[in-house]
């Protein structure tokens, strides 16, 4: 009886530890069944989705409006093609307020109690994606300004090698910009 009690206590302690890890993960964690219905999700998942656990459990991502059928099928296909797992699969989701969230998903098919599930972790990267888009837009605007100015712009590195020249500067010197890149200032 004492050994049995110790085993039950140890099991309970492990279950508590695993539940704490699941709940405290900085990433959204979701467990879905073979039909794609959420079986369990952590608090981070609920917070990102803008839904309570009771609103999520038993529903599919399609039913919750997070993805459309095409996105869902692509995700499932990626898992099949990945031999039952995917790493850092980039995806977009609709969140409750209607905005789009960008994320990296890692998922693996697992077996528990004779049934197959998909365990997924989701790392939301919306801020990074938006910052990258803003940077690309800023660079494009800068490029338009530099390429259309009447002033010549010429940049060289510390060795005197041309690493940038705008079209106007190249024209003033009788070259195409590509001909000047990589050339010495003196040449």
Global morphology: elongated
Poorly predicted spans: none
Q: Rg, please?
A: 27 Å
Strand order of the largest sheet: 2-1-5-4-3
What is the average per-residue confidence, as pLDDT, rounded to a whole number? 91
Helix amount? 40-55%
Structural class: alpha+beta
Number of helices: 7
Q: Main sheet, how many strands, which sense, barrel?
A: 5 strands, antiparallel
Instruction: Write the H/E string, N to C.
Output: HEEHHHEEEHEEHH
Through-space gap between termini: 91 Å
Tell me what the structure shows.
The chain has helices at 2-24, 43-49, 53-56, 69-81, 126-148, 167-173, 177-180; strands at residues 28-32, 38-41, 85-94, 100-112, 115-124, 154-156, 162-165. It has 187 residues and is of the alpha+beta class. The chain has a 5-stranded antiparallel beta sheet with strand order 2-1-5-4-3. A two-stranded antiparallel sheet has the order 6-7. The N and C termini lie far apart (91 Å). The model has no long low-confidence stretch (mean pLDDT 91).
């Amino acid at each position: 009886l004492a050994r049995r009690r110790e085993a039950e206590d140890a099991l309970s302690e492990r279950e508590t530890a695993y539940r704490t890890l699941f709940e405290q993960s900085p990433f959204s964690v979701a467990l879905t069944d073979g039909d794609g219905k959420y079986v369990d999700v952590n608090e981070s998942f609920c917070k990102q989705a803008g839904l309570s656990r009771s609103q999520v459990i038993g529903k599919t991502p399609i039913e919750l409006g997070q993805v459309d059928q095409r996105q869902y099928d692509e995700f499932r296909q990626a898992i099949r093609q990945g031999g039952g797992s995917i790493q850092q699969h980039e995806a977009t989701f609709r969140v409750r307020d209607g905005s789009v969230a960008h994320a990296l998903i890692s998922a693996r098919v697992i077996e528990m109690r004779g049934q197959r599930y998909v365990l997924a972790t989701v790392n939301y990267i919306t801020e990074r994606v938006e910052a990258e888009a803003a940077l690309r837009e800023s660079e494009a605007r800068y490029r338009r300004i530099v390429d259309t100015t009447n002033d010549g712009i010429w940049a060289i590195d510390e060795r005197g090698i041309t690493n940038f020249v705008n079209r106007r500067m190249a024209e003033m010197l009788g070259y195409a910009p590509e001909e000047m890149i990589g050339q010495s200032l003196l040449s």
